[in-house]
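Thread: quick sanity check before group meeting

JM: Hey all, I'm pulling together slides for Thursday and realized we never actually wrote out the predicted structure for the chain we discussed last week. Dropping the sequence here so it's in one place. If anyone has concerns about the input, flag it before I start.
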Amino acid sequence: MAHKETHRTHRIGWLRAAVLGANDGIVSTASLIIGVAASSASRSEVLVAGMAGLVAGAMSMAAGEYVSVSSQADTEAADLVRERRELREDPERELEELSLVYEGRGLDTELARRVAEGLTAHDALGAHAREELGISDTTTARPVQAAFTSAAMFAAGAALPLSAAAVATGAAQIAVVAVTALVFLALLGAVGARAGGAPVRAAAVRVTFWGALAMAVTALIGTAFGAVV
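JM (edit): ok, ran it. Output follows.
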């Protein structure tokens, strides 16, 4: 009977973008709402600021992810073009490089050579992409996926503190938004850690701490500017 193992590395691309987008959505929107509310702004002004933050943040996340991941994809493509040319122009040298990689991993010279020859015959470019460049199907850059995932998750995350702000009124608004944001940040950290197979408690504490710090700083700034105005 075949031994079946469950790994999570195939989730790296979308999981990173999803967690980053949701975390940014919660933290930035909650902090914005709390900062504006602390400046003694009206309820409608707070909600307008929060909605503007949601839309602007989602678009910014999409653009930022697309540009940054596209740069990674361009670099990977250029490296593959160079590797393909080297395989065509000097296959023996490339075979030797691949053999040395496996020797460095503990294989004896003869076995490393045979492994390199077998992989070269099967898929030379794929073997060199994995072993020399660190490029594989799991880690390859996907700009469109990263952009849409980040934007959607930012909007979903931002909607949580914005909904809390819409429900709460008066002096309770800041407290309700802060508590709601911290609860959802803790849940986000736990879910992201569970999906990636990492320790849940450490992830929840980490993301909650930085979220609380961001909201505290913006509350102080909002209070200071509100007092000056």
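AS: nice. Residues 1-11 have pLDDT under 50 and may be disordered. The longest helix spans residues 43-89.
JM: adding both to the slides.
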